[in-house]
Design brief:
Blueprint (H helix, E strand, L loop, with lengths): L5 H14 L7 E8 L2 E9 L15 E2 L4 H14 L20 E6 L4 E5 L6 H5 L13 H10 L7 H8 L17 H14 L3 H10 L23 E3 L5 E3 L3 H4 L16 E2 L1 H12 L3 E2 L2 E2 L3 H7 L18 E3 L4 E3 L2 H4 L8 E5 L3 E6 L4 E6 L16 H10 L3
Protein name: CubicO group peptidase (Beta-lactamase class C family)
Organism: Fulvimonas soli
């Protein structure tokens, strides 16, 4: 098996079979590429909660936050074309953001605001340093204010942006890393304004069609909805059940009322592998160039040193680039890998990583929403998955 030691790769296969056994995850799809070639592509377990339909390698998954890297590529394409600049203020493209306000105290009923000390830029949005409420300590009142404005209740990206213009920041732009989805949804609206196309159309015409990503989009055609894997969570009785979401009840239906740049896409392992391989190859795939090589290098570099005061990482051994984490120190991270490795994940247990040093791409897709209350749940798989991938390298 080119690129991997077969006997060692069998350890990954055995582990994923056990992880998708009767008392584990319903099913999974894994895909590994090296030097631009698919070297391992497997399906495990079942697609449905009844465990009657075996998972197939091209089944469709809700990739949620893996959408963020796609949105980032869309933004960077427009930057290359001169239609956007990362140091531009958001107000250049969207009304209502001319004078960002920061929550300085008070309550959700009577918030006390002050002007932001720094401009709210596209770069701050891309790097999650805009200062929006992100559930960090001290964000409680800001989160309550945002919930009352309810930007995610908007019918389209224009309405979302209008509501977000009334949401106060929890911190000055450029002063902290706070992972939030609103920033990437605002950038989706910026893509619409700068391109003159809907966000969904831009992605389809400029990214999905050129890369031949035939099963990726914000909804699944009716004829293909039988391929969407069931979305599970762990019940209080310790048994898997369908998640309490509209998408779990109606597989393939849009995940949001609008085309969310933060978490709205469905995709497959082979589709996302083509997208990730484009990044690994420096912005082009099969003769179709989406981004320049130096633009991709910038995406895959740590941008958090620009914070004031600067920080080296947002978690142990990891920095953040444009659209995903950047591994700085695998040993400190506690996981096999390489400096410069880049990737991200989605809320329903979907994961991808690209490694320029090893010319390696790895994807693991499941459909399980982990419990957030600390109750009994299935073990997270990403750490062990990547360890087993890397130990199989010759």
């Amino acid at each position: 098996m080119p690129g991997f030691a077969p006997a060692r790769l069998a350890r990954l296969h055995d582990w994923l079979r056990r992880a998708t056994a009767a008392d584990g995850y319903l099913g999974a799809v894994s895909l590994l590429m090296r030097d631009g070639r698919v070297v391992d592509w497997q399906a495990y377990g079942y697609r449905d909660l009844a465990r009657r339909t075996p998972m197939r390698r091209d089944d469709i998954f809700r990739i949620y936050s893996m959408t963020k890297t796609v949105t980032t590529v869309a933004v960077m394409m427009l930057v290359e074309e001169g239609k956007l600049a990362l140091d531009d203020p958001l107000s250049r493209y969207l009304p209502g953001f001319d004078a960002p306000q920061v929550l300085a105290g008070g309550s959700a009923d009577a918030p006390r605001l002050r002007p932001a000390r720094r401009p709210l830029t596209l770069h701050a949005l891309l790097t999650h340093t805009a200062g929006y409420p992100a559930g960090l300590p001290g964000d409680e009142t800001a989160v309550q204010v945002m919930e009352r404005i309810d930007p995610h209740g908007a019918a389209d990206l224009r309405g979302f942006a209008e509501r977000m213009s009334r949401v106060p920041l929890a911190a000055d732009p450029g002063t902290r890393f706070g992972y939030d989805g609103a920033s990437l949804e605002l950038l989706a609206r910026v893509v619409e304004v700068a391109s003159g196309q809907s966000f969904a159309d831009f992605l389809q015409r400029r990214i999905f069609a050129p890369l031949r990503m035939r099963d990726t989009g914000f909804a699944v055609p009716a004829a293909q909805r039988g391929r969407v894997a069931d979305l599970t969570t762990m019940g209080a009785d310790g048994r898997l059940r369908l998640a309490d979401t509209a998408s779990a009840r109606h597989p393939g239906a849009p995940l949001n009322a609008y085309a969310s740049g933060a978490g709205g896409l469905y995709s497959t392992a082979p589709d996302y592998a083509r997208f990730a391989q484009m990044l690994l190859d420096g912005g082009a795939l099969d003769g179709r160039r989406l981004l320049g090589r130096k633009t991709v290098e910038s995406m895959l570099s740590n941008h958090l040193g620009m914070l004031d005061p600067p920080v080296d990482q947002f978690s142990a051994g990891e920095g953040f680039g444009l659209g995903g984490y950047v591994v700085l120190d695998p040993a400190l991270r506690g996981q096999l890998g390489s400096p410069g490795q880049f990737g991200w994940s989605g809320a329903a247990s979907t994961y991808y990583s690209i490694d320029p040093k090893e010319r390696l791409l790895a994807i693991l897709l499941l459909q399980h929403l982990p419990r957030e209350d600390g109750g009994k749940d299935l073990p997270r798989l990403a750490h062990r998955f990547y360890d087993l991938v890397y130990q199989a390298l010759p």
